[in-house]
Amino acid sequence: MRKQSLKLLFMLLIATITILACSSNSDDSDGGTGTTITLHEAFSDFDVDETDIYLDGSTVVIETTGNPNHTTPYWGSGHALYVAPTVATNLTPSLIPGYDGSATLRVPSSPTLAGSTTATSLGAIGISISGAAIFNDQEGNGDLSSAVVSLDYSGGHIGPAEYHYHLEPKAWSDDDENLIGIISDGFFIYGRKCNSTSTYPTDLDTSGGHTSTTQHTMTAEYHYHVINNLYTTTGRYLLFAGPYTGTPNAIN
Ligand SMILES: [Zn+2]
Ligand SMILES: [Zn+2]
Q: pLDDT tens digits for 199-245?
């Protein structure tokens, strides 16, 4: 009889401990283990008038007007942001106000390397912090040789498409570590220098990418750079030619 009471007490103790353990487990899963998704710090560099950036679950949505937030001859004389051409010797006839460059890009909030690369193609391959599109090193079906005379001081022009950059966008990045924008595979692209070393990175892959800290994150992460090699005889630097190291997403 006495033995049975002791046994009962012991079982009650075990049951109490189990209940306590369970309730402390459920506290953990409410707070500590759940991952909260937040917008990457780098998105705070994007122009708030030209872009609208927000989370949709674990997807980042980047909406842009497609218009650059800086001066260029391509605004057309009379516009507040018009400047006379200083670098371009042969502007294309079109002007920014004549185009609707608005577009949306959806990327994963934590992009990953794809394991194999994908070539870039014509059209927008990224969205810059100014709001305007990033294009690759091709114009029509050829390289930029014939188009380079129409590129403004910031490496941008209007092709048959909306205003876009092919070269280092000197309107806000000139031989520095500034954020340029986001490529359609979700990786950011920075200027020719890297914040992690304050100079030109020496460990870039063929896409101009590497993994290190940046001014936006203390955790090393993959990102691209404008490669510090002059593009042909232009005395200027290509913005991004690819190939993508992540999985590209549509910009439309
Ligand atoms: Zn172009
Ligand atoms: Zn870097």
A: 999 999 999 999 999 999 999 999 999 999 998 777 899 999 999 99
What tokens were used for 53? Answer: 């950036």
The alpha carbon of 188 and the centre of ligand 2 are apart by a number of angstroms equal to: 10
Q: Are residues 120 and 200 in the same domain?
A: yes
Residues with CB under 5 A from ligand 2 (ion): 194, 212
* CA 150 to ligand 1 center in whole angstroms: 9
For ligand 1, the distance from its centroid to the CA atom of residue 102, given in whole angstroms, is: 17
111 and 152 in a common domain: yes
Asked whether residue 243 is assigned to any structural domain, the reply reads no
Number of residues in the chain: 252
Q: What angle do CA 150, 143, 89 make, to 5 degrees?
A: 15
On whether both 26 and 86 belong to a single domain, the answer is no
Query: Structure tokens of 73?
Result: 């001859």
